[in-house]
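Name: ZF-HD dimerization-type domain-containing protein
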Amino acid sequence: MGPQQDRRSMANGKRKETKVVVVVQYRECQRNHAASIGGYAVDGCREFMASGADGTAAALLCAACGCHRSFHRREVEPDCDCSSTTSG
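Structure predicted for ZF-HD dimerization-type domain-containing protein:
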């Protein structure tokens, strides 16, 4: 899960609150394994899978290819929670 943001707006004199949840997923590995010899080769890892539990150092390493999470393509999808609460 990603960070949550609160958005508040005034509609018809009433405060309306909506929560927007941002979902972040890490896709294929883009690490160039042949960079040291001047070539280009990726390992073919299709999606990041964490090696350990959230909050640990192992959660940042991919179980499939062993690379750090930063080598994987980041995909951000806003997931709107459209249920709003109205307070007076």
